[in-house]
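Researcher: I'm comparing several assemblies side by side, and this is the next one on my list. It has 891 residues spread over two chains. Same procedure as the others: predict the full complex and return the structure.
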Amino acid sequence: MSGAFQNYVKNKFKKPGPLKGIRVLEVCTLLFGPAGPSFLGQMGAEVIKVELPPLGDVTRSLNPFGWFYKEQGPAFMHINPNKLYLALDLHRDKGQQIFRELAAKSDIIEFNMRPGVPDRWNVGYEQIKEFNPGIIYIEKNGFGQWGEYAEENRPSNDGAAQALAGFAWISSFAGRPPLKQSIWVCDVFGALMGEVAVLSALHHRKRTGRGQYIEMSQIENIMRPMGWVWPYQQFAGKSAEPSGNRDQCICPADTFLCSDEKFVAIAAPAPEEFGGLCAAMKRPELREDPRFRDHSDRLREENALAILKIISDWAITKTAGEIESLGKEFGFAAVHLHNAQDMNEDPHRRARGFVKEIDDPMYGQYVDHEFPVMMSKTPPKTKWNVRPVGFDNDFIMAKILGKSQSEIDGLYRDGAIGKWKDQQGRRPPADWDQKSGLILRR
Amino acid sequence: MKEQERPSWADWADRIRSLDDPAKAFEKPEALDDLVVLDLSSRSMAGCFCSSLLAESGAKTIRIEPPGGDLIRTYSPGGIKHQGTGLAYLQEGRNKFHITLNLETEEGREILKSLAGQADIVIETYPAGMMDEWGIGYKELSADNPRLIFASITAFGQFGPESVNRQYDYDNISQARSGIQYQTGEVLPEGSSCREKPYAVPTKSGPWMGWATSGTFAAVGILAALYHRDMTGEGQAIDVATPEAYERLNDYALHWYADQQVVNERFGSLDACLWLYGFYPTKDGGVFLGGLRLEMWQALVDMLGKWDEWGAGEWKSLAPFTQKDWQLKYQSMIDPLTSQYTSKELTDKSIEYSKSGRLAPITPVVAEIVSPWKTMHDENWLDRGMFTPVEDPVYGPVVCAQAHWKATETPPRTKWVCRPVGYDNGYIYLKYLGYGPAALKKLEAKGIV
């Protein structure tokens, strides 16, 4: 791109992130809540993660089949980089008072509690707005803050959202049971969309000085990218149905089994792409076949099945790698299915700094994702990892709130702030040297 | 709303609804209505999704298509059209002005420069390098307009060894490259092959989640760049690769392999990290069962009448249940039990259990796995404004998913769903370039608009 991204990875740390100067307070657990503030943190905002002492965020306990990284939950690590860790007991008056003092100095507040809980803790939107009218305050949950389901106090999570939005229904093969995604798609995509709302509100505040309250239901939000499903149902008068790996709106676009037992995804809807694929298959006549010539005709059920059968019969005679190369040569899109090994070893991801080594004072060197938006003048960055519950209390109290040491001691004594329990995921890793990562030593 | 006892926090619900009900969205200001966006997306719904998110908050969004329209207008199940436009684009044409411009001509490119000189944001999805070759890349456009935010969403990104490939960005390709498709899908039973069971293979998500995710990340980047510009006056270039954006949603597979050389494999509708957490069959379909605390899992066992037989009272920790072999063992024990009920019966049982069960009020999460048809007709979502049809002057009433977040001050809203190809040429070219009917006619004759 004409130099805008020349030496981007090398020079990344010469410039601040775009949200420099923004302060975010987060009172969130699991994934849907904390993922959003992390995105802001990776873009340079100062994010204070508020946890309830001494156990904090339950995600600290999550692990795939028993694997922890230095005693820490790997999902917790991926979801929570670049934050400061404060353990504040919001059940106590004094803890609520500290929260309000921080809220007075913050731009954005994010909660993912049940409806009405922040209010009960005297840190709800209307209570904060009284002294900080510019505050942008978002609450995220399953069913929103009002309506029949919300009032039934239904609990929710990512799996329930996939089920209730109709998302899982259309993500399996036809005739098979609905399929759950292996990732927490409603959580993290919902968190991301929440930041669209928050950052739009930030622009509005810049123009008018006015803050606002935003509510985000992860179930509703995942309906938004389901796009064509809704008008289809309206016009066809019936439900949208699943179609496995075949894209129902683009043809050909599907996943095929190859001779080496690997899978390759192919897409070739545009005329020159489809022509390229036909040429690669040595079937140039298909390009002019009246069933396939025009994309809209090709999408008709019987025609789509016919061309996909032809491609499938061809793909099984080639390796996935051969088809990937033919895609480059003949100008259609094709890629073998990447797995976790590809994610780690692919030179392209590394060259872009998207997959990179983090050098963390507490967790050492490990591999993580960079923020997937590269910005030429204000590069976002993943910098450091998670900390034990309440690890940055003293720094936050002294630096941001200007508390004296005796006041901080008093807060500990009163139980307004607290530290981690001596338990996996809450305490520092076993090889910690008692000082690395501390900003203010106590 | 059905008659029901209202919760203790009902006053909060009423108050917040009075402030953020999407039924009142049109009475409120728009967050981004001082901005002009040019959307040059080609073949990629990621770019259109991105510009939709800005247009829903009021940005004046000008969609630029080649004469004849973008291929994207043909994306539709079965190829069906509604008044000439595919159903997918009837969602992502929303709130945009539609003009045509032939960027393959010198004159067309000069016109684009004039538009970009007056714009705040450009979104484009051409393979990396194409805009530069045309002389309308970030370098050229920012020279005239240094405040410009120029976002590219592509298959490979703007740099890195693969970025020389001129392949377009398609959702199914990006899902395949992200690593997520590989680890999602039914498990192939021991001893069988995917030739016999062609459904037990890596499976992508039905919706275009690759495109939606990169489009949304790009919108987040654009809005953050806007904040930076508000503070400094400086614009910039933004680079999003769809497979990377989608891969970022994958929470531990990368690290797991790096540390343990474990490749995250398919685990059906269970979850490698969580118990109780998965899809289970019912007489009439299926349900999601969830309970991330030991008591919730015990409550399910009790509810299914197996408290004593399975010794649930003795369980001390959830940890062993998240192990792979225990997950599979208990899944096979739960399946035949849930199959005896309909989804509704199981849901009702869980509500009943929360009132009178041994562990009440603790109860498992039971959520019916519904069809999108059922979702679209559910009173709760209708009441919350999710499917309020858009009354479009050209396309008539069209159901769109909207109000996907609610806000007291600047809520998103959908004003129209789409426009036919070149529908706004007259208005936009007059407003920004002073081209009246005579000038447009000449450009049309030359195939430029």
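Model: For your comparison table: Chain A has a mean pLDDT of 97.
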